[in-house]
Amino acid sequence: MTSLSSVKNHSRRNFLKATSIGTGGLMISIALPGCAALKNGGMNQVDGQEQWNSNAWLRIDSDNSIHFVLDRVEMGQGTYTGMTSLLAEELEADPEKIDVSFAGVDSIYRNTIYGIQITGGSTSVASSWQIVREAGAATRMMLIQAAANTWEIKPNDCSAENGQIINNAEGHPQQGQNLSYGQLAGIASTYSVPSDIPLKDKADFKVIGKYNKRLDALKKATGTADYGIDTELPGMKYAVFTRAGRWDSQIKNFDASKLKALPGIEQVFAINKPSAIGIAIVAKSYWQARKAQQQLKVQWHESELDKVDDASIFAQYKKDLAEDNGKNVRSEGDIEYALENAAHTISDEFEMPFLAHATLEPQNCVAWAKPDSLEVWAPTQSPDMAQVAAAKATDYSLSDIKINTTFIGGGFGRRINQDFVAEAAAISEISQQPIKLIWSREEDTQRDWYRPSSYHKLSASIDKNGNISGWNHQMAGSGVFDYFVGEAAPAQYPFAPKFMYGFLESAGKIGEGIIAPADGSIFEGAEALPYDFDHINVDYKKSDSGILVGNWRSVGYSHNGFIVESFIEQLAQNPIVKQQGKDSYQFRYQLLNKHPRAQAVLKMAAEKANWGTPLEGCSQGIAIHKSFGTWVAQVADVSNDALENGQIQVKRIVCVVDCGQVVNPDMVNAQMEGGINFALTAALYGEITIKEGIPQQTNFHDYQLLRMNEAPQIDVHIIESDEKPTGVGEPGVPPLAAAVANAITAKTGQKFNKLPLKLS
After folding, report:
1. N or C: which end of the chain has fewer CB within 10 A?
2. How far is CA 643 from CA 562, 650, 679, 745, 747, in A?
3. CA 692, 482, 446, 432 torsion-angle sign
4. What pLDDT, in 10s, does the model give residues 618-641?
5. Mean pLDDT for the stretch of residues 585-591
6. Residues 415 and 462 in one domain
7. Same domain, residue pair 656 and 699
8. CATH label of the domain that carries residue 297
């Protein structure tokens, strides 16, 4: 940082500059990916105004406006507010006065956990907890130094508050006066970014843990938030795309002779790109294109999936697992010894269905192809993967493609896969005009990248004293990594020419865990079993169903949370184990003795739910699970009268969460509530079935969502913590189905080894 003595001869000029209203367009920019990257650039001229730029993360203009470029997408999970709150805390600014925009594609915006520019895994705040605060703190320090130099006082005699620097120097002629950040931005731009950036103590927080508003609420309530489907361009046309029922089918022939005479229809053509296979219809309006689609006749070649159905898929899983246990992902003690020498053994099998995402904003994308460039507007969870998808589907290179990220009307992992971007880009390139592609609800449901189905075998050994001595969990199913590595691998190497994309995809699959992240999408949450058993074994056999699969909210934790906690309940209810006099809560609590944070969460859930004394006319079930670094315990109160009438009605869910330090308490509550309702939908209704290779569900009439009158009372309680923040967008999902199932088991004795829950 520039010393006070070195600038005294410039102080009068600086003061005049700082207090002038004609400084015009001076900016401060700070790059966020760690202290080493925090730097400032030189002055330049843009549109006749003097600006200072390094990277487009944080900018302060001379009009005192603060601009923050958000490197994670906002799909309802609250990154728009959470990340801005981190910045505002250290910058000493009002979060509501910070203008937020979404980042374009740039390697500086990469998620530090995944190595690509992606929003997922409940990592946004957790991965940015340090670096965003450092950017705010560094900027504040530079502005304080600018003010101190202007007033010719020490930085310690200045304080920052609500977007301005205050002169606290006793006896100084300007004591008590202030300078706004905008007035100081130009002066601060001449300084080096400090290398030592102290951050606030928790006790001094004004925003973190206390700010309870959503910064995007007003935009969404007034309809001014721009979702992908809201994008409008001059001269834009609308497109629909007809795909085969089986995703791997190729076009045999098609008849569009009747379409061209229909009102508004401009173009009909086939696309045969690996990532976009189908017939495009371009029209003046969406409805004209959709109506014309009904008269399109297409014949498709036979598919390798013609004979694939649910029975054959699960038969394959069982066969593959019987022939080969696959990859061992956890081994402690000697599970074979424990099972062979057990006084009693409990075993069960579980089958988990495919699940659709059912985002309320269907897939959509706007693309504008020009002779030398392609611009895309997309509700995508991964802008750099979207850029790769567009490049693969067209003749444009990455450097010719610009991605504009929008608000997202529900992601849940669906928008990590970029098929809707590839299709829009390909259509626009052929059409050579701006087009908006919109999927119908039926297309969205039947061509989703589903949560994988999976098969699980579990066994537990009980010793002569009624203690659980061993735990064995074996599973088979598809991994999701293989289904998005085609875009993810090239996104990691944007300098690679397009002819190498196939090689990068293959290398990513072969080098999984070496040159690409290991795919834990099936076994996550199972391999990290928290219960204290002497012998634990977890095996995973990759067995590809051939059906498109992808990330689904909480991914592998979503099924393993149910399976582990349902099987734990079987153990707790076993007559030999029950002789120890422990109920379901006490049984779990004792086995979590190596995880005090888990015990605290479980204990509070039992207390807040009055465990053992359910709501009137209800039965209770309990479950706990850790995902994305966050512990969540839930107690479900399920109506007995409804059960007697053959229905499942959840009256209340008590949820306790430990997610480390809380940035926005209301956001945590909202994410737990949303996750619980999302999970309850899946627990009661969620199932995609396959017949002759074709998903059978098409819309909300046969892929039902939870109705408002079915939503339970939800009580969320947050554990106070000094630990670093962990994820909140997904951890509310995994325990829910087990808590509900365990409540039903307590009343009826029926155990569940399949979802959705169906009473016998």
Report:
1. C
2. 20, 10, 20, 11, 9
3. negative
4. 999 999 999 999 999 999 999 999
5. 98
6. no
7. yes
8. 3.30.365.10
Compute the residue count for the chain. 760
| Cis ω for the linkage preceding 263 (within 30 of 0) | no
Tokens of 170: 């006793």
Which position has the token pair 């009343």?
747
8 A C-beta contact, residue 498 and residue 388 = no
Q: What share of the chain is helix, strand, coil (3-state, %, to 5)?
A: 35, 25, 40
Query: For residue 395, what are its two tokens?
Result: 């003749």
Nearest to 594 by CA among 536, 539, 657: 536
Q: 347 and 372: one domain?
A: no
What is the bridge-based pairing of β-strands 401-405 and 373-378?
parallel
**Nearest-angstrom CA–CA distance, 724 and 586:** 29
CA 140 to chain centre: 31
Residues 399 and 418 in one domain: yes
CA distance 550 to 412: 10
The DSSP H or E segment spanning 312 is helix 310-323
- Give, for 658, the enclosing helix (H) or strand (E): strand 650-658
**Rounded Cα distance, 551 and 549, in Å:** 7
Instruction: Look at residue 157 and tell me if it is in a domain.
Output: yes
Q: Are residues 598 and 458 in the same domain?
A: yes
Beta bridge partners of 210: none
The answer to whether residues 65 and 206 belong to one domain is yes
Number of domains in the chain: 3
Q: Is residue 512 scored above 80 in pLDDT?
A: no
* Residue-number span of the structural domain to which 278 is assigned: 231-302+365-438
5-26 per-position pLDDT tens digit: 333 444 544 544 454 433 444 4
The residue written with tokens 């709150």 in the block is 85
CA 60 to CA 139: how far, in whole Å? 10
- 695 and 644 housed in the same domain: yes
